[in-house]
Amino acid sequence: MVRIGIVGVGFMGMIHYLAAQKVKGGRVVAIQTRDQKKLAGDWRGIRGNFGPPGTMMDLGKVKRYPQFEDLLADPDVDLIDICTPTNLHEPMVLAALKAGKHVLVEKAIALETRAADAMVKAAHKAGKLLMVAHVLPFVPEFAFAAEAIRSGTYGRLVGAHFTRVISRPDWSADIGDASKTGGPAIDLHIHDTHFIGLIAGVPAKVCSSGIVADDGSVPYLTTQYLYGDGGPVVTCSSGAVAMSGRPFVHGYEIYLEKATLAFTSGAQPLTLYTPDGKAKTPKLKGVEPEIAFTTEIQTAVNGVRDGVEPDLLSGQLARDALALCHKECQSVRTGKAVIV
Asked: What is the mean pLDDT of residues 108-131?
């Protein structure tokens, strides 16, 4: 049994807690938060952009720590699941690794590439797993696309366009603070750069246009990922610019040699188009957002059990996704293509 300790009981911490209830071979044995009400089980103030609202929780069988150091000192915790704002990830991950714990940390891995490099290096030195919770590859529509591309079932990847647009986040003070999250071009868009890295690798250059906010963050951008001769041709538009009546949309059109995949949340279910002119809707294993998080945490638990870093939760892949976001922001600010 892999024993999990969750750090940070905000919206994402709550989602991880609920998702972990359905994991096989793993169990949440402890939580850590400085909020006394949440330690007592009052999670009614928690809300997010999907999933259930917070409620009163029965935490009678869970150890509850107000201090992070006390959770790290618990010998009954194997895996530290860090769900705090991104600006706190580096010191917490380094402390957890030093304490001899495996780590699952929410995306983004860090605010700066330098910090991500230090975290990956520390994990190797400690001989522990550093896994980064990028949930997109576990979302059924994206999991299907990743498997189709990586398996080569429909030939090589020719081109793709991804979309991820939200309205300005208002469900958390932290999520709207660019100093803690990096802003939409890091906190939101990193979903796309991670997935693009997974299916196509790191491009040679990026060329981006976008908006620069007063605080220096980039709330919206469109990027061309330049892979050189032979492609693939990949683009993405991402950011927080929609009106509140259209709070979230993500999707893609993916062009393979022998198929086209199309998906837009709330508008078009995943559709597979084949050379014979036919279109079909592949059967997916559930589409509720919480299912993807359960699969993600199950993958982390399996990794700890087997002593092998899962490729979908790779610290290096997460580091490269962060670096790509920063290169795109540099391209937005300079108006020039940037070497990756």
From this structure: 98
